[in-house]
Amino acid sequence: MLNISCDVSNWACLRLLLVLVFSANAVFSGTIVKTLPGFDGELPFTLETGYVGVNKSELFYYFIESEGNPKEDPLLLWYSGGPGCSALNGLIYEIGPLAFNITAYEGGTPQLEYYPYSWTKTASILFVDAPVGTGFSYATNSDGYATSDTLTALQVYYFLKLWLVDHPQYLKVQLFVGADSYSGISATILVQHILDGNGDGNWPILNLKGYILGCPRIDGQINENSKTVFAHRIGLVSDELYRATKESCGANYYGVTKADSACYENLKLINKCTKDINKNDILEPKCTWASPEPEPLARRSLEENSEDFMILSPDFWCHNFNYSLSYVWANDESVQDALNVTKGTIRDWKRCNKSLDYTYDVTTVLDYHRNFTTKGLQALVYNGDHDFTIPNVGTQEWIKELNLTIINDWRPWLVDGQTAGYTIKYSEHGYRLTYATVKGAGHSPQEYKRRECYQMFDRFIHYYPL
């Protein structure tokens, strides 16, 4: 395990440390995992787990080598949103080569199956539990748990550089930064850190090719405003109420107070129409649920701050029920031993930790994206078209703010001859941005349309049009 004594704000210290580490041929922690509880036989892919120490914190990672050509396939750094949702969520439920056998579960250690439509078919993926306090990542003292949008971006940047020092063969391949949901904020800043570090000649130089953002939060005001627009477009709000709200609010629905009486009252009516809608997927039932309790009917809110706690019949399916096995599996001592989790560091693993010591210190990263348009990067941004948490209309709005040139106009993209969503491609000064919707998907799209999202990623990463 590598421990870093430099403060994350001290660039000179970090750079010197990296040089000293590399020159000394130091070996970082990381163990190849050949078997996992619940999986029959040896894993049919290369899995490495370990920690990288950054600023009083130990960031836990899962690295899966490309099942294609790892010497040439790109490296994708991936972490989940929340903030505080474990990268295991991405690995098991979204883009990795494993999945739980949910239908056959009868108790005990959940069974894992190999999932064929994994993004690791064509890329090596470095999953990291970030920020600290997420998943199996932990701080070495209480002060280390305090983090924020800006600190998360810095920590992940240093984590990535340190990991690549120990895995120099991946410095040669193309690098993509990937994240979803709220991590769209810190991942954007992370991309900027990489560009700045490369521009300043900070060692090692990272071979950044682009970034991939799923249902990302980019601008708070645009995102919150888009929810009212989306609610109307999708048919949750009447034309009359929407027009009245738009007129009384001046098309600004963010941060409205009681002082704006007419606007405030209209927004209350809209909220009344939508409060019982599942925000992650408007077509699915709304329910809140968390880690399994011994009693079969015991349910507690997954979101500790949820205002609308609804308990449904145990025979009633809910999307959140799919998450149950991750709590059972990841809290199993034999699983943590197999993953080489440091004993005594995690008392209760949570898929999404809602008790982080986290400061939300960035409201928009739109200017970063404006800067990216001059850097020749490749970008893929996508949304589920039934996502009410990060609505597709908001994502399209901030992309329009970049004033890019359309090179392939709005059209359907297909999987097996069927419309999988819609896409549009932009270009400016060598920068390429592909935007896609995923038809019928919620938040995050890979959980709902896993195979279609694999096809989307596979085409993008090989520079094929969707």
General description of the model:
It is a single chain. By secondary structure, the protein is α/β, with parallel strands linked by helices. The protein has two domains: 11-220 and 362-461, Rossmann fold (3-Layer(aba) Sandwich), CATH 3.40.50.1820; 225-329, no CATH class. Helices cover 30% and strands 20% of the residues. It contains 13 helices and 16 strands. The strands form three sheets. Strands 1, 2, 3, 4, 7, 8, 10, 11, 13, 14, 15 and 16 form a twelve-stranded mixed sheet that branches. Strand 10 (175-180), helix 4 and strand 11 form a beta-alpha-beta unit. The protein starts with 10 loop residues before the first helix and ends in a 5-residue tail after the last helix.
* Unreliable stretches covering 5 or more consecutive residues: 1-6, 11-16, 18-27, 289-313
Quantity of strands, as a count: 16
Assess the beta-strand content as a share of residues. Answer: 15-25%
Total of domains: 2
What is the CATH superfamily of the largest domain? Alpha/Beta hydrolase fold, catalytic domain
Query: Which CATH architecture of the largest domain?
Result: 3-Layer(aba) Sandwich
Using only CA atoms, what is the Rg?
A: 22 Å
How would the global form be characterised? globular
Category by helix and strand content:
alpha/beta
Q: In which range does the helix fraction lie?
A: 25-40%
**What is the class of the largest domain in the CATH system?**
Alpha Beta
Q: Summarize model confidence as the mean pLDDT.
A: 89
- Which quaternary structure do these chains form? single chain
